[in-house]
Sequence to fold (429 residues):
Amino acid sequence: MSPTPVAMASPLRPATYSWEATNEAVAARYGVPIERIARFDLNTSPEAPLLADRIVRAGRFETSLSEYPPSDYRRLVEAAARRYDVEPDEIVVGAGADEILDLVGKAFLPAGGAAVVPEPTYAMYRVITEQRAARVVPARRLGAEAGYAMDAESVRMAARQASVVWLCSPNNPTGLAEPPGSIEALLNGLQADSDADRREPPVVVLDEAYAELAADSLLPLRSAYPRLVIVRTASKAYGLAGLRVGFGIARPATIAAIAPYRPPGSVSTVSVTVVAAALEADGWLPERVAAIHAERERLAAGLRAAGWAPGPSVTNFLLVPFGTPERARVVAGALLRQGLVPRTFAAGHPLADHLRLTVRSPEEDDRLIAAARSVAAGADSVTRSDAAQRSDAAEGSDAAAKSDAVASSDAAEGSDAAAPRNSAAMETR
Ligand SMILES: Cc1ncc(COP(=O)(O)O)c(C=O)c1O
Fold:
């Protein structure tokens, strides 16, 4: 999921955040029938795997639905351990990757502490850091021409004052993995710096939410760096975001430090049963990943033919530059008026001149390609004044509420992403 940080009220109180607008909210604001809403902003799959449907219809779950799920999620842990080729005591289960990130924050980020965030990246790292009343130490990323790779020296420097380093590979929203060997080299560097400073090395979270799509994982590195926590999810390649299942994988001692913060039963019995079956079943995931890859290339080619320039991606989303934040907002507004919800980035965000677009079904992607063609042909701009477009697009980016935004000065502005409000104020986000 994707929060929009809207205010940092006080260093001692967590920032407030607004969440993405619902389909109902977008439909109401843009006057689009709800069945025409297509979510290009959440990096989810347009449909769950068939096996999920079969299990839910059969209605046979791990335990009766009148009971709590098994407190150790044993079958799910064992299925995940086999799938990821790790030991069961190297896994902690959470309600989505987001809960794992939260648990890591609770376990390793003291109030007044600090965490390194190589931005732009997934918004939750900043959210969780601030919720713990800790400080974000930003680290640099290189530009598009270098695949937005993290600047390892900048991360190392920032990590000297931090207890947690948040890494994401492949990175959301930029779509590419870190170059081969770079994370291992960084871990070695962090270890050397900590040895030199005679302190414990920082916990490094490596969020691999999109690993199955990139067919690559750095799970084996946990042996060499005991404070590495790898995060995986059922939400992306597995297509099961609604079940809310994620995993933290680390050496047993690190898992033992995280586990006490786990709430009892945050993952439902239905989720335990379906995700365990999805992990146990062979053969279906590679087929699904291949289909996403093929559709991604088709979508990218369609958008290129329409004059857009999506960057390379190893994930299920594309990052598209529009030259200026103004142009990105106008395009977002045009898409939203057709019920196509892009991920926007607020003014001030390093990617404010981009939109991020999820690879969806061929039908939905065709609608997006057609919309891109009509935007490129100027169909949107010949019928509307510049001012009207600006105001619409500002509302659009807000209704989509997907900005990894910098904090806004007004908490009230962001408290309800779908509520109509003054567009000039929204432009400040
Ligand atoms: C990098 C990254 N990590 C974690 C998540 C959250 O995943 P989950 O649905 O498992 O909470 C997302 C969702 O977009 C993501 O992009």
